[in-house]
């Protein structure tokens, strides 16, 4: 009888055998529970269950939906651990479903609404174009680059930026725990969107100042958040194009999930502009909050989001070596990568 080597035994433990047919069908039909999840999030079903289990008839009445169709959708989600049918035709929250509540401190509702958006299906359906050409799918489908398209579609613009705020919440609290932002006098958040990450850092660092930098049609949302957080005296905004320049005066140039949006030449341009702004700050740093793709078959969120980059802006998720090479081409030197309790890493660089 054949015996397994140590490495084969380890592999079998990490990747237990699964019926190949079931495995294939699970992936082939993944869009079905995804569609049901989007419906549940859009209908705020989790909010209706915040105080305990309820019959599907009540849920259908509150959401103005067909009772049988809603039941079948929730039954499918319960099968995969999102909601639970704790008695016939009655549903309650599970830990995963709790995250769909709009009032949950770690709510993922806005992210689910963006990722499960029917617009996403339209883009994903044409992935073959990107695989053949290497070009972003969204441009082939809509005729416009991703961020230009978002600016032309109010619904998708809102869903996208709400999802990015959710992504900021996922990333920034573990990053603050892992990295000392208080050592800097002025943090310039390049491409900072509506300012959730920067405002959170400034709330944690009482003596640090900030500059929120993004495009003209985005920065208004950031100004509102700065006021709501009473940070007017320590944080200002600036609008512009980071492919042209970034505001001077910072000793930390911070970017959360920005570099992954762009292919290498554009990413290098952004990093070079940050380096130029650091010319008078010899001890200044560039810090990225990004995924770092692990080698081999290890499961990691980065490998899913990497295809999202192919769908939309045309960028990519990168390995440690790819980040090192990217910085070098921008005359920066990567100094360290700090893992966090989230899937994100803090990646630090200095002027080479």
3D structure, described in words:
Helix 3 (31-42) packs across helix 8 (109-115) and helix 12 (146-152) packs across helix 13 (154-178). This protein has helices at 6-14, 20-28, 31-42, 45-48, 56-63, 67-79, 95-98, 109-115, 118-124, 127-133, 137-142, 146-152, 154-178, 196-204, 216-228, 264-277, 301-311, 320-329, and strands at 54-55, 84-87, 90-92, 186-190, 209-214, 235-239, 252-256, 285-290, 332-339, 345-351. Residues 1-13 have low confidence and may be disordered. Strand 2 (84-87) and strand 3 (90-92) form a beta hairpin. It folds into 2 domains: 24-101, Winged helix-like DNA-binding domain superfamily/Winged helix DNA-binding domain (Arc Repressor Mutant, subunit A, Orthogonal Bundle); 171-351, 3-Layer(aba) Sandwich (Rossmann fold), CATH 3.40.50. With 352 residues, it is of the alpha/beta class. The chain starts with 5 loop residues before the first helix and ends with a strand. Strands 6-5-4-7-8-10-9 form a 7-stranded mixed β-sheet, with helices on both faces. The chain has a 3-stranded antiparallel β-sheet with strand order 1-3-2. The protein is globular and about 70 Å long. It has 18 helices and 10 strands.
> Which ranges are low-confidence, i.e. pLDDT below 50, for 5 or more consecutive residues?
1-13
Tell me the radius of gyration: 22 Å
Describe the oligomeric state of these chains in a short phrase.
single chain
Order of helices and strands: HHHHEHHEEHHHHHHHEHEHEEHEHHEE
| Content-based structural category | alpha/beta
| CATH class descriptor of the largest domain | Alpha Beta
> Average pLDDT, to the nearest integer?
94
Report how far apart the termini are. Answer: 58 Å
Shape descriptor reads: globular
CATH fold group of the largest domain: Rossmann fold
CATH superfamily of the largest domain: Vaccinia Virus protein VP39
Number of helices: 18
Integer tally of domains = 2
Largest sheet: 7 strands, mixed
Percent helix: 40-55%
Number of E-state strands: 10
- Percent strand equals 5-15%
Strand order of the largest sheet: 6-5-4-7-8-10-9
